[in-house]
Amino acid sequence: MQKRHRLRKSKDFAAARREGKSWADRMLVLVARRTDNECSRFGFSVSKRVGNAVVRNRIKRRLKEAARTEYLPRLSESWDLVVIARKDAANADYHRLNRSLRRLFRRAKIIDDRANRQTANSGAGSSVNVSPASSSPASSSPK
Q: pLDDT tens across 55-110, in order?
């Protein structure tokens, strides 16, 4: 992840926690604060209670990769985002962490995958609905 996309200073983490809104599940806590910066920034925090250094760094690597590849490109507005790992994250693989992070982004309404899917499906569905409507019994009974 590029430096410009990372939260690095403790005052930035503190500002996000103080002024932002948070959402949580069993594995992660997402804290989001809207900013006027030119780009969104991510910060990751894993407490010593979660595990030893190897475990903490593994969790951070997995979360950074998910943020870099799946969420950063989809953010249209500028956000300071802090992701805090909980104890249950220690035993989670990349896919479980990513699923948890996606769920939190949806709840925060920062990224909504379901809306994109529904738009794509409704576009296909509307063309299907149009053709049966044109061959409705009322229009096919000019006898």
A: 999 999 999 999 999 988 888 788 999 999 999 999 999 999 999 999 999 999 98
Tokens for 137? 């019994």
3-state secondary structure the chain: CCHHHECCCHHHHHHHHHHCEEEECCCEEEEEEECCCCCCEEEEEECCCCCCHHHHHHHHHHHHHHHHHHHHHHCCCCEEEEEEECHHHHHCCHHHHHHHHHHHHHHCCCCCHHHHHHHHHHHHHHHHHHHHHHCCHHHHCCC
Residue among 87, 71, 70, 88 at smallest CA distance from 79: 71
CA 62, 64, 68 angle in degrees (round to 5)? 120
Nearest-angstrom CA–CA distance, 42 and 81 = 5
Give the span between the Cα atoms of 85 and 101, in whole angstroms.
10
User: According to the model, what pLDDT value does residue 80 have?
Assistant: 92
Match 């209670």 to its residue by tokens: 49
> What is the C-alpha to C-alpha distance for residues 22 and 29, in angstroms, rounded to an integer?
7
